From TrEMBL:
The keyword Cell inner membrane does not apply. Its main location: membrane. GO terms for biological process: transmembrane transport. It is found in: Cell membrane. It is a multi-pass membrane protein. Belongs to the autoinducer-2 exporter (AI-2E) (TC 2.A.86) family. GO terms for cellular component: plasma membrane. Keywords: Cell membrane, Membrane, Transmembrane, Transmembrane helix, Transport. This is AI-2E family transporter. The chain crosses the membrane at residues 29-47, 53-71, 83-107, 167-188, 224-248, 254-282, 323-353. It holds the Pfam family AI-2E_transport.
Length: 377
């Protein structure tokens, strides 16, 4: 007669705890995870409510990545730190004012008719859906479109919340603008000293890692901002030329929308292209709309297969699914501002994770050294 071997319960639970080991491990991991989530949520809450301080810091940091090469060039010519930073910043402001002055007269009137034209194009597109081969209910489609447009006029949903409930408070904008300009100047002038001061608060063992991570993050942001700005400029010029050749009106406003849409990957390009196609549909009919759509697809192919690999090859690499999730989370948490900053922040997180992954794992007292160093079979 066979007997089952006795199980020594005391070996598995030396402390006498009646709960199994896997249960205690899961519980310990769960409460630690909840603490991390709560801390991250509290941090996001504070950052959103302190946006008048946080946003200028982020914008100044991004702007400094664009102007830093100019500052370095001026320093190489013998200019002092303060003069080089002030010269680069003043030159950028004058360039923006000059461009705004040049295109403001044509944009002012055309932007007023941009939305009505796009709405008319959307309604005209519904007429095609009511015809064969779709044969959808024209009345139901029009009611749905009119209801959606009415809601869009009333409020722009969670995205509008990022600009202080519909209209930006003038004092908040002016304060943020002044703080951004001043911080940009100081970042350009004393950025290296500021970073050294922050590193002084880290321990000696972690200072090297902190410096390496900070350097990688700034380099990635520099490449991303410069690359995305150049890509947006090229997209705007190419699409503007295509619209001029086809004969679509409101070229300048569409070019402006295309440029800024480049800073919101995937979704921005889709929305800018949709506006261009709808306006072409109203002004020239189905043929012009098809030609504009073909031109947009061609420009996107040039961007995806030529510009992105060349300009963004050494910056952050994010999967499209990660970009979509980041944009959705940014829109919910920070509105329009959150959408604008979502991809750069996701890129920063990606750089940190890549650095951690490349670093060798620390020695663990739970694993023998021979097991760690043994090659995989």
């Amino acid at each position: 007669m066979a007997y089952a071997p006795a199980i020594d319960v005391s070996d598995e639970r030396p402390d006498g705890d009646p709960l199994p080991q896997w249960y205690r491990t899961a519980a310990a991991a769960s409460w630690r995870f909840l603490v991390i989530v709560a801390a991250a949520g509290a941090l996001v809450y504070v950052l959103v409510h302190l946006r008048i301080v946080v946003l200028p810091i982020i914008l100044a940091l991004l702007i400094s990545t664009l102007l830093l090469p100019v500052v370095r060039w001026l320093k190489a010519k013998g200019a002092p730190d303060a003069l080089a930073a002030a010269g680069a910043l003043l030159g950028a402001l004058l360039l923006i004012v000059a461009i705004g002055t040049a295109i403001a007269p044509s944009i002012g009137d055309q932007f007023d008719e941009l939305r009505p034209r796009a709405e008319d194009g959307l309604r005209e597109a519904t007429d095609y859906l009511a015809d064969p081969p779709f044969n959808l209910s024209e009345r139901d489609i029009r009611d749905t479109v009119d209801e959606g447009l009415a809601r869009l006029r009333e409020n722009s949903g969670p995205l509008a919340r990022g600009l202080s409930s519909g209209a930006v408070i003038l004092g908040e904008v002016l304060t943020g603008l002044i703080v951004t300009i001043l911080l940009t100047f100081f970042f350009l002038k004393d950025g290296a000293r500021m970073w050294g001061y922050l590193l002084a608060f880290t321990g000696k063992r972690s200072r090297e890692h902190a410096d390496a991570i900070g350097t990688r993050i700034y380099a990635a942001l520099s490449g991303y901002v410069r690359g995305i700005a150049f890509i947006g400029l090229v997209d705007a010029i190419l699409i503007g030329l295509a619209l001029l050749i086809i004969g679509v009106p409101l070229v300048v406003p569409i070019m402006v929308i295309t440029f800024f849409a480049a800073f919101v990957p995937l979704i921005g390009a889709f929305l800018a292209g949709l506006v261009a196609v709808l306006i072409a549909l109203v002004s020239g009919g189905l043929l012009d709309a098809a030609l504009v759509l073909g031109a947009i697809i061609l420009v996107q192919q040039v961007e995806g297969h030529l510009l992105y690999p060349i300009l963004m090859g050494r910056t952050v690499h994010l999967h499209p699914a990660v970009i979509v999730i980041a944009l959705a989370a940014g829109g919910i948490l920070g509105g329009i501002v959150g959408v604008f900053l979502a991809v750069p922040l996701a890129g920063v997180l990606s750089v940190v994770l890549e650095y951690v992954r490349e670093e060798p794992p620390p020695e663990s007292p739970l694993v023998e050294a021979s097991a760690v160093s043994a090659p995989e079979s």
